[in-house]
Automatic annotation (TrEMBL):
Every PBP domain range: 78-344
Stretches for region Disordered: 38-65
Transmembrane segments: none
Alphabetical list of SUPFAM superfamilies matching this protein: Periplasmic binding protein-like II
Alphabetically ordered keywords of this record: Signal
Source organism per UniProt: Trichocoleus desertorum GB2-A4
Name under which the protein is recorded: Substrate-binding domain-containing protein
Domain of life, source organism: Bacteria
Family matches, as Pfam families: PBP_like_2
Entries under InterPro entries matching the protein: PBP_domain, Phosphate_ABC_transporter
Amino acid sequence: MAQKNETATLVLALLITLGLVGGGTVWLMRRSGAPLGGLLQPTSQKKSDSRSDLPPAVASQPGSKLQGFADVQNIPSGSFKYGGSTSWAPLRLTVDSAVQAARPEFQLRYLGPDSGSASSGSGIRMLINDRLAFAQSSRPILESEANKAEQQGKELKQIPVAIDGIAVAVNPGLNLPGLTLAQLKAIYTGQTTNWNQVGGPNLSITPYTRPTNSGGTVELFVEDVLGGQTFGPTVEFVSTTTQAIRKLAEDPGGVYFASAPEVVPQCTIKPLPLSRQGSSFIAPYQAPLVTSSQCPAQRNRLNTDGFQQGQYPLIRNLYVVIQQNGQAEEKAGEAYANFLLTEEGQNLIARAGFVRIR
């Protein structure tokens, strides 16, 4: 009987000790601000919550940010070809020169397609055909592109690095509070042909767009706004955004869409607020609107809050697309994405007119 009592006493003492140690640990963690959930979370759940869309050098550092280009590791040495979306042109001018200056061992060479205009699609095709180390895209990888790569025994990966939007612009003289996506669809499919049908003046509408094979902006517009329908008979095709802006400045009834950084700061056109439905219009610019008479001393700037919070109805990501082959080309694409995801890179992205993704 005495032995049983001694055993019970030892077990009770052990339980009390464990309780005190556990309670003390929780108290210390609360004092230090350490998250309890992460430690108590099952290992399998932690893995499922990881950011698989970020490159390894960033995803392996949860909650932290690399400050500058000098902090990025695993940079391959050599010359690497890249290309793709024309929406990336401002970033190529702003970011790439800074990367080259900071990391001269990492040489970048832009390569356009042999025929046709550069676009997200042309860049991804060239990547699949081993002509590029990585591609720049203004839309996600299409299922057809992923299938084509798979047929060749290849696997693509997209890394989001910036936020962009599609802005709709009109002549500065057009008096219109905004458009819903349904109204925009009706205009570009030919169902609406006069501005008085959408609350504007009695004026014929001339919709402008670049060709359907010109890049990610048009592809996304056709998919997200037109629902896959073709452009109507009233649509006029232009080769570049520069040409379209000139036409809008001269055409009182013209309308055009393009990447927001290409449209919002322009002096000779007016970006329109948009709405998914109803009259709750969200402008692609920061209010109040800077008029043509105030420009270029002042220019409209992107509505960064509306883009980051998803309030503006036509937003998208910009992606670095790589081929996962374990070779230097994959490392080059991941390194380039890591440069853009540093604090220095995100600052340069904002300076180029796009919206930070982090």
